[in-house]
Amino acid sequence: MHIIKNIGEKLSSNEVDILLSDFLTYNFITPKEAKLLKVATSDNVLNISQEIRDVLRARIFKNMLLNLGD
C-alpha cells in the first residue's frame, strides 16, 4: 500500500491525528477503526521515552493499517 510506505519510521501523536483525519475524509477507514488506531497509538498506551515511542507508534500504526482489510 502506497500510503503505508510514505508514513516513515517515526510518527508523533499529532501526525497520527492528521493521518486519521485524512483517512476518514476519504473513507479509507471507518470512524470505529480510526478510534482503535488512535487509542492503540496514544501516548497513554506508549508510556516510554519519546525517541522509542514515535518509532513504535509508526510500527503499530502501519501494521494495524495493513491488517484492516483482512
Helices and strands, with pairings:
Layout lengths: L1 H4 L7 H13 L5 H10 L9 H18 L3
Percent in helix = 55-70%
Largest sheet: none
- Strand portion: under 5%
Report Rg: 11 Å
Number of helices: 4
**Secondary-structure element order, N to C:** HHHH
| Alpha-beta classification | mainly alpha
* Total count of strands: 0
Question: What's the overall average pLDDT, rounded?
Answer: 93
Taken from the alpha-carbon principal axes, the silhouette is globular
Mind explaining what this structure looks like?
The protein has helices at residues 2-5, 13-25, 31-40, 50-67. The protein has 70 residues and is mainly alpha-helical. It has one domain (8-67). Helix 2 (13-25) runs antiparallel to helix 3. The longest helix is centred in the last third of the chain and has 18 residues, at 50-67. The chain is globular. The model has no long low-confidence stretch (mean pLDDT 93).
Overview features:
4 helices, 0% strand, 70 residues, mainly alpha
